[in-house]
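Request from the bench team (R.T.):
"We need a structural guess for the complex before ordering more adenosine-5'-triphosphate. Sequence and SMILES attached. Just send the tokens back."

Command: build protein-adenosine-5'-triphosphate structure.
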Amino acid sequence: MGNQEWGLQKENLALDDVFKLDGAVLGHKMKETNGIIIGKHFGFPLDFAYEKIFIGGKTGSGKSFTAGVLMEEMNRHGIQFVCFDALNAHDGIQNLPNVEAISPRENETVNVVKLVSKLKRSNGSLVINLVNLRLESQQILMGDYCEALLAEDFQGKPIMTILEECQDFVPQMGKPYSFAPIVRLCKLGRGKGLGAALISQRPAAIHKEALSQVSTWMVHNIINTKDLEALKIQLSFGTDKETIKKVLSGISYAGPGEMVCFSPKYFKEEGYLKVGKVNRPRRTEHSGKNIIVKSVLESHSMHQPMEPMESMVKDSHTGHFSDVSFNPLDSHDEYFAKSDSEGGRDFVLEDMGEEVSEFEWTPHDLEDVLSLEDYEVSGEKQTLKAVGAIGLISAGIYLITRGLASRNG
Ligand SMILES: Nc1ncnc2c1ncn2[C@@H]1O[C@H](COP(=O)(O)OP(=O)(O)OP(=O)(O)O)[C@@H](O)[C@H]1O
Ligand SMILES: [Mg+2]
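Reply to R.T.: structure attached below.
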């Protein structure tokens, strides 16, 4: 207890702890009426809509979620945006007022001149779902869109363009069709009221011509040293070493949804950076969810009858185990076929009638997967069943091996 009072702890420091004595953890001072507010600590004035921003972080760190909150906030203020959604992470955004979505296919074209003209004439925003297009077609669409946007005069009306997976469109290596138009948008857009949000897991994989235009860096957790190095190089122009060190250490401490936002323009008073969680309540559902992977063993241990299976019963005459091969996958398929036809796959402990929560599979720990303790089911009976399940699986594997051996022999 004493050690804990002195700060000794098993887990890593939280992002807030690292910056505790800093202005970086203070709340924002923006008002709802004139601020793009994406979390308790993060608020930006409305001219944010024509900035160049970078949203980075490793997979699952919260980039698309942050982009979604930004779009909701811009929508709240009537600021228009166009989002190129490479991975269908923003399906819900079209449910906001004045937002529509298109999902072009390979045999279709998008008339970008019409698209831009609609942006100019209306106050509508657009999500372009790119998942049905080959990468090359995505690059052409994006390039043509940027050129058409730059050619239009919006007379001071800001338009923000959000580019998911932008390393595929302005890569560090190679020059796809979209390369030059995106660089031009980043370089010339500000004067025309055109903003851009570059989103990527890999700052090191985005071309410096585009990254060097970024004024606000919203970075979630990154651990890849090449990407940290790329950020360090970009931030080093005009920033003192101490601040860069803080930014980089913050990024490596950030948990899911937490970010380090470095913005000399907006956070001058706070020492250029702020840290915290993007915790503005969502107005739409975020479709870029983490996929939960489940082991076939899960359903096996949960749903197989605990009595010995036919295939594993000793032959009463010979005293040997049956040679029928036992495949745990079969029983899994059978179970799902059955539960699907019954209209659901709810995880229910059948003989106890108790609903149990889903859990994530860790490949390292078979015992944990099989242990019924995880499901908050108590009692010796359940422990015995878990032991039984382990026994049944072991016997199945033994039978397969034995069957193969006898066939080969
Ligand atoms: N600020 C947040 N608050 C609550 N949940 C969040 C937050 N950020 C992310 N999440 C959750 O984390 C998951 C992954 O987030 P997100 O889709 O934003 O990841 P990502 O960084 O875009 O990953 P990828 O590079 O794979 O696209 C989502 O299920 C989302 O609900
Ligand atoms: Mg994403």
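Two things stood out. The CA atoms of residues 171 and 240 lie 28 Å apart. Residues 57, 59-65, 87, 89, 201, 256-257, 277-278, 286, 288-290 surround adenosine-5'-triphosphate (ligand 1) (CB under 6 Å).
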